[in-house]
Amino acid sequence: MLFSHDTELTLRAAGVLINSDRVDGEHLGDLRALDDYLDSFGWTGRRDHDAAELDSVHRLRARLGAIWETAGDEVRAVGQVNALLADTRAAPWLTRHPEMPEWHLHLASIHDPLWQRMGAEMAMALADLIRSGELRRLKVCAAPDCDAVLVDLSRNRSGKFCDTGNCGNRQHVAAYRERRNNK
User: How far is CA 183 from CA 143, 170, 172, in A?
Assistant: First the structure.
């Protein structure tokens, strides 16, 4: 494991959130889809279940996507992460749950709005990545027809393709066919 369990989980959750409108249309278009996403990553705390909450998560998604896209420019990425930490008024505290018995950080009150809790935890996970000198693990899929993002958690940072659209397999098959045609 490269990072703590909660950091890796939160980075994956951020990637899935960003990709929720980058591959095959909008996948987070209603409150049911938002609940399914939140449940799949074990988000706890307040949920308002209204259009304003969904809209605020969509705005967070756009901010996170901008951070991913500037990951090659550490100074800009740090500025965006710091702005997100400030906007969410992150206030760390240790906790654990029956489903996650290891101590981990929460960065906002369970009573704070959903986008604020998500944004604070995702910003802190990104801060962990930056502090470790691993910002280059945030990538955009290398497939020419894909805009999805990925968190490359491989040991040697060799991941290039997302797992949302079978991009790696498609690119490998295309390269194989190209090599066969050039023989």
Answer: 24, 21, 17
- Beta-carbon contacts of residue 40 (< 8 Å; ≥ 6 apart): 16
Task: List domains and CATH numbers for the chain.
Answer: 5-181 (1.10.3300.10)
**Amino acid 103: pLDDT:** 86
| Structure confidence by residue, pLDDT tens digits, 14-52 | 999 999 999 889 999 999 999 999 999 989 889 999 999
Q: What values do phi and psi take at 32, rounded to 5?
A: -65, -45
Cα-trace Rg, the chain: 17
Residue-wise pLDDT tens digits, 125-145 = 999 999 999 999 999 998 888
Cβ-contact 49, 114 below 8 angstroms = no
Half-sphere exposure at residue 98, Cβ-oriented, CA atoms within 13 angstroms: 0
Which H, E and C letters describe 82-126, residue by residue? HHHHHHHCCCCEEEEECCEEEEEEECCCCCCCHHHHHHHHHHHHH
Q: For strand 149-151 and strand 100-106, is the pairing parallel, antiparallel, or unpaired? A: unpaired
Q: Kindly state the tokens that stand for 82.
A: 């710091």
